[in-house]
Design a protein that fits this description.
Pfam families: Polysacc_synt_2. The chain has 13 helices and 16 strands. The protein is α/β, with parallel strands linked by helices.
């Protein structure tokens, strides 16, 4: 098997031991030509080389049959995943495409990109925050969607951990409004974008995503077929991760990583968008779908691979230490979840147990606490709602004055700087 050609990966690690950091350098400079494990084929794309696997082809005929001639609504349309998804959908001949986002300027720009393919009368723009129930209801009433894809939310782990009330407002309250509106207005299918951090969550972000999945499961039995998808860390245009990394490497700046052993699942933005379409087509009873992304990729290895692609193999790396809620490695399924094969060989699903009794009442209390900005009460209610949520409370890593935010907050933010 051909090996991935490597230059000697020179880098200068700067170690800052902490509670979860190493007491001595656990990484060494590799010798030239030293093997680093199985390498992708030589003809693999640059993104495949970074991920250590081939990109999965998704959203084929099933996606076209699902979308063609139907009215589609996308929340968080200007985010990395939302925008890529809209660009896929516009080529599938929808009857109408409603773009929902709270960023008016970016929304208008995205609308212009859509009208390059679709007639202007088929594109609707809604500058709306999904955490406002009445506004969401008005949009659904006007757009009359048949398919809803909910990608809006707060996805920066560190920010959500620091301000749990804001994370719950965006990720739980917003999702609740979209789920309720989907049922009220007779939407045929609704897909919620979750995260691999929802599997046995240790962070507030993961807990809010898990609650979003529970909201879809609690709404089954009506006119709407629900599904959720757990995505990994998204790379590739128009994502910000590689742009940030390229800038730091080419400018000879320090690349900050949380921990030398941190590893994450990576997927391309095209895979993430395609997974949404596949999930909508495959859903039967509020399953949660996951793309087979292989083993988690060590973030330090991804940095080396990308530096070599840029022909700048000398990288200075600093380890900041894991922060609150962060794991060394994510997983796509909880230990208690049973994996189910689907019609696509690279997509797995799970059907979790029914939501706990008393969920609506506890959700009401949680949303009230979030609206009131009571972060301590929010954390307490999250633990009551989710027995599988085991928060990891660490001190936030100390940064040097003017220091960079870690390239990968908890490895890598799902969508830096957020959807």
């Amino acid at each position: 098997m051909p090996r991935f050609p490597r230059r000697r990966p020179l880098y200068r690690p700067l170690y800052r031991p902490g509670a979860d950091g190493p007491s001595r350098p656990p990484w060494r400079l590799r010798r030239a030509g030293e093997p680093t494990g199985p390498a992708p084929p030589a003809e693999a794309s640059p993104l495949a080389l970074l991920m250590g696997r081939d990109e999965v082809v998704l959203a084929g005929r099933r996606g076209h049959r699902l979308v063609a001639g139907r009215r589609v609504l996308v929340t968080g349309a200007c985010g990395t995943v939302g925008s890529a998804f809209c660009h896929q959908v516009k080529n599938l001949d929808p009857a109408a495409l409603c773009l929902v986002d709270r960023d008016g300027a970016r929304l208008r720009h995205l609308g212009q990109e859509m009208t390059g393919t679709l007639d202007a009368e088929r594109v609707m723009l809604a500058e709306t925050d999904v955490s406002e129930r009445d506004a969401v209801d008005d949009v659904f009433r006007a757009a009359r969607p048949e398919l809803v894809f909910h990608t809006a939310g707060q996805n920066e782990l560190a920010k959500v951990e620091l301000r749990p009330s804001r994370g719950v407002t965006a990720n739980v309250l917003g999702t609740r409004h979209v789920v309720d509106a989907s049922v009220l207005h007779g939407v045929a299918r609704m897909v919620f974008v979750s995260s691999d951090k929802a599997a046995d969550p240790t962070s507030v972000l993961g807990a809010t995503m898990r609650l979003g999945e529970l909201l879809t499961q609690g709404a089954i039995g009506g006119p709407t077929c629900f599904a959720a998808v757990r995505i990994g860390n998204v790379i590739g245009e128009p994502g910000a991760l590689l742009s940030t990394l390229a800038h730091r490497i080419s400018s000879h700046e320090v690349v900050t990583i949380t921990h030398p052993e941190v590893a994450r699942h990576f997927m391309t933005v095209t895979e993430a968008a395609g997974l949404l379409l596949e999930a909508a087509a495959l859903a039967e009873e509020a399953e949660t779908f996951v793309l087979d992304m292989g083993s988690p990729v060590p973030v330090i290895e991804l940095v080396h691979r990308y530096a070599e692609q840029l022909r700048l193999p000398e990288v200075t790396i600093r380890f900041s230490g894991l922060g609150p809620g962060e794991k060394l490695a994510e997983k796509t399924f909880a230990d208690s979840e049973r994996r189910i094969r689907t019609a696509h060989p690279k997509i797995w699903a799970t059907r979790p147990a029914p939501p706990p009794a008393g969920l609506p009442q506890l959700l009401d209390a949680l949303c009230d606490a979030a609206r009131g900005g009571d972060d301590d009460e929010v954390r307490l209610l999250l633990r009551r709602l989710l027995p599988e949520y085991h928060p990891v409370r660490r001190p936030r890593p100390q940064r040097e004055p003017g220091g960079e935010t870690p390239l990968c907050d908890a490895g890598c933010s799902p969508d830096p700087p957020g959807l």
